[in-house]
Amino acid sequence: MAGDGLMWILTWIHGITNSWGLAIIGLTLLVRLAMHPLTKKQMDSMKKMQELQPRMKVIQEKYAEDKETQSKKVMELYKENNVNPASGCLPLLIQLPIFILLYNVLSRHGFPNATFLTIHLDGSILTMIAEAINLVDPATFEKIPIKVLNEATGHYILNPQLGFMVVIFSAMTNLPLLFSNMGMWLPNTVLLMVISFLTWYQQRLASSGNPQMAMMNWFMPLFMTFICVSLPGGVLLYWGVSSLIGVVSQVFVMRKTSVEMQKKPVLLQEKPTHKEAG
Questions:
Q1: Which of 105, 185, 197, 210 has the fewest CB atoms nearer than 10 Å to its CB?
Q2: Which DSSP category does 267 fall into?
Q3: In sequence order, what are the residues at sequence separation of 6 or more whose Cβ sits closer than 8 angstroms to the Cβ of residue 134?
Q4: Domain spans in the chain, listed from the N-terminal domain onward
Q5: d(CA 92, CA 199)
Q6: Between 112 and 25, residue with greater pLDDT
Q7: How far is CA 217 from CA 4, 10, 209, in A?
């Protein structure tokens, strides 16, 4: 039901723009608009974290040899100022159902041969590489079809046999063919690289000055890159545009906050609690 509604929106925007790529971008803008209240809360939390950085640095220097106490004091500082250090992950988690729905829509309906700025909207990086090397299963030496018919729906879906290791191993043993057909898979791969960078940069901005979230700065981009390899280009386009909007918004808020901090530095200094003063 939800998937049909999403397809209706895409079809409606496609009727206006005559481009599936622009339809996906339009859908992205609508989703970001609907998420504005949540995004605003995330930005407010990020602004508070940025304002607290001078006090956090004092704590980190004061308890440099006692990481446990340092973490405890930082969490107390967050609690005192009603800051949620994990708020940067919330917009991503909220959007996951949209990713899944869009993936299902593309799998069921597909945009046959549709491209946007040379990005293949219907196929994933794996399927594009498989087509580029005319994939043959090295175990059986039989050609594996890229798509198979789903008898339940009557639509063609991506062949589940196209596993990551099968495609990568076959590509490594067919490098001349892989690079001679580079145009088939390179645009989607470049888009994935851009998404990986945006995910890393967005996490870095969201967790700036928060040592507890440092691990997420690397885990999330790597995890998303692995997931995105098998996602259709249409889903990658949605993800990339959404991430770009998120990064631009975060940079704007951080620059605005930096200007405010320069005007009111005294309000951001750490002040000892009554217990420490006594």
A1: 197
A2: G
A3: 143, 177
A4: 2-265
A5: 10
A6: 25
A7: 35, 33, 12
Rounded distance, CA 190 to CA 125, Å? 10
Cα-to-chain-centroid distance, residue 6:
20
pLDDT of residue 237: 93
Q: What angle do CA 92, 189, 240 make, to 5 degrees?
A: 30
Model pLDDT for residues 31-77, shown as the tens digit of each residue: 888 887 777 777 777 777 777 777 777 887 787 777 788 778 877 87
State the CB neighbour count (10 A cutoff) for residue 193. 11
User: What would the two tokens of residue 36 be?
Assistant: 């504005």
Percent of the chain surpassing pLDDT 70 = 71
Is residue 205 within 8 A of residue 250, CB to CB? The reply is yes
- Rounded CA-CA distance 244/61 in Å is 34
| Region class of 134: left (phi > 0), else alpha (psi between -120 and 50), else beta | left
pLDDT in tens, 140-152: 445 666 666 666 5
Provide the token pair at 148. Answer: 């198979």
